[in-house]
Write a structure and sequence with these properties.
Elements lengths: L2 H14 L11 H8 L3 H14 L2 E4 L2 E4 L4 H25 L2 H12 L2 H4 L6 H19 L2 H18 L6 H19 L3 H22 L4
Antiparallel strand pairs: 1-2
Length: 212
């Protein structure tokens, strides 16, 4: 992996996982030393992050962008348009076996989310697998690319609910319903289940959001 790719991946992960908080100044010397790269590949990485909207270049230098409630609402407007259509297409074109397996795993997901040591990362990986399965099923490279770009920001938003086991448990049931609708080949039900999940997710975020 090129040094610039390595720096980009590390910084992107730190941003979406909230290890680098909004407003953090990404000073070149400090970050280059931390990541073990020279300043040239670091600048390339920062330019990519700025192009994606995860950082902003200004008078102070490059800083991690914040996420306002208005930003989240705009993301969900686009998300509903793309993901509800993608779910419908997946129901028409996808392999039912793949989505039956995912449905069963989401039905069992509360075991990951509750208890003294919730396996949150395992749950988020399961969500990513559903996203990837839908991307593969729709056979539309342009739509899949658009959704991948959107998910860069949605991963950050999802982490806002990371400590709310009740909401994540409800979301797991909603994901199971989406997977089930796709598995039985019902586009309208898949679209409706996706829309319901997104509306509930946005309502939860709006009720609990604090500016960052």
């Amino acid at each position: 992996m090129r040094a610039s790719d390595r720096a980009y991946t590390a910084l992107r992960d730190d941003i979406v996982q909230w290890r680098l908080q909004p407003g953090t100044l990404l000073a070149e010397v400090e970050q280059a030393e931390r990541l073990g790269v020279s300043r040239t590949p670091l600048r390339e990485a920062l330019a990519r992050l700025t192009a994606e909207g995860l950082t902003t270049a200004g008078g102070r230098g490059v800083v991690v962008t914040g996420i306002s409630l208005e930003d989240i609402e705009e993301l969900f407007e686009l998300r509903e348009t793309l993901e509800s259509k993608a779910a419908a297409l997946a129901a028409e074109r996808g392999d039912p076996t793949v989505f039956r397996t995912l449905e069963a795993e989401f039905r069992a997901a509360p075991a990951l989310l509750n208890g003294s040591a919730p396996a949150l990362e395992d749950y988020y990986l399961l969500v990513q697998r559903l996203d990837s399965a839908i991307d593969a099923a729709i056979s539309n490279s342009y739509m899949a690319q658009a959704m991948r770009g959107l998910r860069v920001h949605l991963v950050r938003v999802r982490r806002l609910a990371a400590d709310d086991a009740a909401r994540l448990t409800a979301a797991a049931a909603e994901h199971a319903a989406i997977a089930e609708a796709i598995a039985i080949g019902n586009p309208r039900l898949a679209q409706a289940a996706t829309t319901l999940h997104l509306h509930r997710s946005l309502s939860h975020i709006k009720a609990t959001h604090t500016p960052r």
